[in-house]
Amino acid sequence: MNKIRVLIIDDSAVIRKVVRELLTSDPEIIVVGEAENPLVARELIKTLSPDILTLDIEMPKMDGITFLANLMRLRPMPVVMLSTLTTKGSDITLQALELGAIDFITKPSVGTLLATKSQFKDILIDKVKHAVNVDQKQHFLNSKLIENSDTSILPFSGSQRRNHIIAIGASTGGTEALKVVLSRMPKNSPPVVVAQHIPPTFSERFANRLNEICEMTVQEARHGAKIKEGNVYIAQGAIHLKIEEKNGALFCVFDDSDKVNRHKPSVDVLFQSLLPMAGNVQAVLLTGMGNDGAQGMLELKQQGARTVIQDENSSLIWGMPGSAYKLSAHQEQCDLFKISENLLIYAALTRGEMNTNEI
Predict the structure, then answer these.
(1) Whole-prediction pTM
(2) Do residues 240 and 255 lie in contact, with contact meaning Cβ atoms separated by under 8 Å?
(3) Closest CA to 292 of 194, 123, 127, 170
(4) Going by C-beta distance under 8 Å and a sequence separation of 6 or more, which residues neighbour residue 47?
(5) pLDDT in the model for residue 137
(6) Residue 90 a catalytic site member
(7) Catalytic annotation, pick one of 197, 240, 263, 330
(8) 10-residue mean pLDDT series, the chain (359 residues)
(9) What local confidence, expressed as pLDDT, does residue 31 receive?
(10) Torsion of CA 35, 37, 38, 43, to 10 degrees
(11) In Å, what is the CA distance from 26 to each residue of 4, 20, 31, 33, 114?
(12) Closest by alpha carbon to 139, among 13, 317, 263?
């Protein structure tokens, strides 16, 4: 079996050494080269033909974003960003995903990295292995489709059912997929709650970026916030989001318990919190690696919720929706660019029509 050929691009010699050590501990990976800046990397790509890059953001001579934009234009290939947990780092990382980076991993300080190498190693190797298997030509095509997608607001007469709610789970590729789904939904849409696998500081910046392009009001979820029509609530990084019904209204509730399926926030935690009101729920799984949300979606379906997964062709990674597919947890399988319309058509049905119509 051919090994995965990785080129590391980072201005820190210490980081490059640690990343090389961690990656080469896996027998399926070989580090073919290191570059301290994008100008060196540009030449190494030509001579070494790596399968995938790990790319730092802040580097001398050329920043990672400028390099990434040029790379995706001239020679598209899988890229995993190494990002800081700062507000600036969050914005730049989200921009990198818009440009075509497959995924990112938050890069701790050198001292923290040396102390937590084992945990960092597992995440790094996992992301590299998943990213290299992405069909780069299809990803590039999907990125262009997202960039040029129709953002006109869909017509919607309003939900006929009180407290109807849409719950969406996503991971790798989800930041871009959610833009497509949410940007066409009108301000009178049913409330949407989102569990996107994302670290702290990123969730607020992501919500703010979505709010700039959406007619619905997009915000980072707050503990105790009352859920209202026309609003989208993005789960905060590093804490689970649950939904509870009190006195006929729905509220966001935080849960600081352990990770579920290696994630916090977890899609399964969100979905399972909706089981008491399942008959009034639409649950959606978008692109992402792993299986988070699949079991929760199955349980929701069994309790009367409507369940939708993104199809394989339009998914960056069909891990989460694919896992739901294997469990037969879905009722609908839908192209990314048709999900918004699909959800709104169902949301407009009366309770009687729900039982006699198929979308």
Answers:
(1) 0.93
(2) yes
(3) 170
(4) none
(5) 67
(6) no
(7) 197
(8) 94 92 97 96 97 91 91 93 79 92 86 78 94 80 74 90 96 95 97 96 94 97 98 97 97 98 97 98 97 98 98 95 98 96 94 63
(9) 98
(10) -40
(11) 10, 10, 11, 16, 18
(12) 317
223: left (phi over 0), alpha (psi -120 to 50) or beta: beta
Q: Has 197 been annotated as catalytic?
A: yes
Report helix, strand or coil for 193.
strand
Q: How far apart are CA 249 and CA 265, in angstroms?
A: 23
Q: Which of 90, 143, 159, 171 is catalytic?
A: 171
In the numeric block, the tokens 């945990």 are attached to 119
Catalytic-role residue among 292, 314, 330, 340: 292
Residue 171 annotated as catalytic: yes
As given in the structure block, the two tokens for residue 264 are 């916090």
CB 220 within 8 A of CB 207: yes
Residue 100 makes CB contacts below 8 A (sequence gap 6+) with 68, 72, 76, 79, 139, 140, 143
Which domains are assigned to the chain? 4-133 (3.40.50.2300), 165-354 (3.40.50.180)
Which tokens go with 70?
A: 């040029």
Beta-sheet strands, E only, within the chain: 4-9, 29-35, 52-56, 79-83, 103-106, 165-170, 192-196, 217-220, 231-234, 240-246, 249-255, 281-285, 306-310, 332-334
